[in-house]
Amino acid sequence: MTSLDSFKSRQTLDVGGKSYAYYSLKAAEANGLPDISRLPFALKVLLENLLRFEDGRSVKKDDILAIAAFLKNRGADEREIAFRPARVLMQDFTGVPAVVDLAAMRDAMTSLGADPEKINPLVPVDLVIDHSVIVDEFGTPRAFGDNVKLEYERNGERYRFLRWGQEAFDNFRVVPPGTGICHQVNLEYLAQTVWTRNENGQEVAYPDTLVGTDSHTTMVNGLAVLGWGVGGIEAEAAMLGQPLSMLIPEVVGFKLTGKLREGMTATDLVLTVTQMLRKKGVVGKFVEFYGPGLDGMTIEDRATIGNMAPEYGATCGFFPIDQATIAYLTKSGRADDRVALVEAYAKAQDMFRTAATPDPVFTDVLELDLNDVEPSLAGPKRPQDRVLLSGAKSGFAASMESEFKKAAEIAKRWKVDGKNFDLGHGDVVIAAITSCTNTSNPSVMIGAGLLARNAAAKGLASKPWVKTSLAPGSQVVGEYLAASGLQAELDKLGFNLVGFGCTTCIGNSGPLPAEISKAINDNDIVAAAVLSGNRNFEGRVNPDVRANYLASPPLVVAYALAGSLQVDLSTEPLGTGSDGKPVYLSDIWPSSAEVQAFIDKNITQALFRTRYADVFAGDDNWKQISISGGKTYGWDDKSTYVQNPPYFSGISMTPKPVADVVGARVLGLFLDSITTDHISPAGSIKAASPAGKYLLDNGVPVADFNQYGTRRGNHEVMMRGTFANIRIKNQMVPGVEGGVTVHYPGGEQLSIYDAAMRYQAEGVPLVVFAGKEYGTGSSRDWAAKGTNLLGVRAVITQSFERIHRSNLVGMGVLPLVFENGTSWQTLGLKGDETVSIRGLGESLKPRQTLEAEITYTDGKVAKVPLICRIDTLDELEYFRNGGILHYVLRQLAA
């Protein structure tokens, strides 16, 4: 498209004998945007995006001026802008339902009499299949092969569907299973830092930007690529050419000084940063890192910090381009001409950071001296709950009293049937080196290998009750661990390769050995997991494990040796060596110099270029998948994995007016920090749950249930799984855990799904009430889709997490927040009330104050002001159309 270019910014850049058009910030600064060189680097990326797409309609001159005005107002004016990312990244959990929606939209286009091939990604889309491998087999050389075999057996239907999508859609690439985690493949291969495309015969260069259907898309911020997680719903709209509507963000500067001390890891650093930023409060804001601490920081350490932006609540955790970026792009095998372009472009745009770069203007700043970072874990159930390694034992004891109410029996142990060991509270039953956060970082992966080598040399072994696993984030990691000899050392302690993908961190930890599971459940043991992940929410990692701790890969190995959170690793021995002497963590911890020597010797450009030479081809399993269907998909009514969703049935070219909510019943009353895992779990499906009953009724044996995450292409499973987390607590049924509610007026206790279906049959709308930070965690579109399909018209909370709020709007569900000081508790709600919300028709405006009329069982009526969290005019259009996909479909059909 051609920009109006009000600020005469389109210029030419010559690099290595090749000419590129680009939108120059320096030219714009000279032509009416004074001092923009002082903007945060992340805002320079947004500004370039607006300059390039200025069309007088979606992007106006005033929008561009508003970014420049950040220097005065620091992002306080809440102006809406339209952002168009260069590309979209997906993983298969969220990618399958997105491709299902695209396939359903093709059917809907046909029913509207339009061309189904209008439904095609208009920007490049990469889908990486990384969330489907489960740790069934572990601790043996066979584990990898057996898990791959099981993965293909379980997911044949899904993989056939994705293979169809790979053929049917333009601009859509699939990275097959067994390659790595989407964020690491993005960091190591897909991301380019500066993107190019041919427009009318001219090559245009611009910053690499993206949105991803996984909240940890922010990992690539470490490579100076601006991107963040969105719901699958928003990602589909971006794929279909819709700009993403957003408010000009506040940008919090995080100044880093000093250097990490000997023995400190990137994980220790990121857990410290996460705790600081959660305390600060950065939800909905950009965080940008700056200061002299960056001078010695690797891209992998930056990516570790960027990865956990969802855990500290920010939209992104951005690092600017500097010499480390150029070095990483070179070492990871990017094309030489691309690396040259990145450096030349960044310098031409004042986007290249050096030690002499003046500090940008920020909304607010924090500061951390890297020298102050100490060894840390986070747990037992939130990433921001950092504990020092020296305080982990006492922290667990405190949680046994406050969280688990079992302080009196903290020292008790129980015999495990058929085994020569017993089990007690705090015993580590899962030790998993897993997840993008850390497996992308050679310093901690090689650190774990060296620690394993040193432990094995002293005669230590993992405790027999620990399920050990190693799931690297890419084949590159597998290669350098094998080539360096460290994989063999990890194997000695049971950390055999189990797969390349996102395993324990997403809930794909697989079942514990039956006798250990039985001992835990028979005796209500508070068992522990230690994982190198980014998420440790309750009910997520494994249904048998209640205390989950995040830690660096070397500490994961150390806890496998110690076997319990009730061992203080800073002062107590991990075990007894073959010489009969106690072995302490300090005895086997590798030095930074040795770690670096292994990195320098084993991680080469040739390694990256070889592993990514044919990344989209896949293994023999992938190549042998047969596909059927042409422009539209041939749906199989018997499939329990992929079904045509009901969103578009009976769609017309013009939307029906939005009806007011009148006489709604309450489906749930929830407390603070309800995560998208609580609303739409990703893990195992219980046979007695509504989803389990559906699968049994459809002839699926329990052994083949797979998990919620892999069945996201089937709305029948996912509706039944909504609010079905085993640990969710609906306050309408105090003392009960799981997806249960009360159906009124009769007062019968039912599963949330069964109650919702009964209300739907009765023609009764529903609302949900909750506390603060509703919808934290993964960018899970099914948390919004399921809410919609259960018949929930409005969700009323004290505050929302960013992605989930926009997903609700994208599915036509109204997000509302109480005014300060009000909550469902202050209103004395029990869940037997009725709720009416009027004024949802043509007069509705973004962020308007509405009124809820709550009628209590005694006839008393309360009028409660609520703020409508439809934030922008674009979002209002989506809401009026019944959702963002309906809006896009009508636009394309017209």
Give the topology.
Blueprint: E1 10-15, E2 18-23, H1 25-30, H2 41-53, H3 61-68, H4 70-73, E3 80-83, E4 87-91, H5 92-111, E5 125-128, H6 143-154, H7 156-168, E6 172-175, H8 182-190, E7 194-199, E8 202-207, E9 209-212, E10 226-229, H9 232-239, E11 244-247, E12 251-257, H10 266-280, E13 286-290, H11 299-307, H12 309-312, E14 316-318, H13 323-331, H14 336-348, E15 364-369, E16 376-378, E17 386-388, H15 392-402, E18 413-415, E19 422-424, E20 428-433, H16 436-439, H17 442-457, E21 467-470, H18 475-483, H19 486-492, H20 514-523, E22 528-531, E23 547-550, H21 553-562, E24 575-576, E25 582-583, H22 585-588, H23 592-602, H24 605-611, H25 620-623, E26 661-669, H26 676-679, H27 690-697, H28 715-721, E27 740-743, E28 748-751, H29 752-762, E29 766-769, H30 781-789, E30 792-797, H31 802-810, E31 814-818, E32 834-837, E33 849-855, E34 861-868, H32 873-880, H33 884-893
Parallel strand pairs: 4-5, 4-9, 5-6, 9-10, 12-13, 12-15, 13-14, 20-21, 20-22, 22-23, 26-29, 29-30, 30-31
Antiparallel strand pairs: 1-2, 3-11, 7-8, 16-17, 18-19, 24-25, 26-32, 27-28, 31-34, 32-33, 33-34
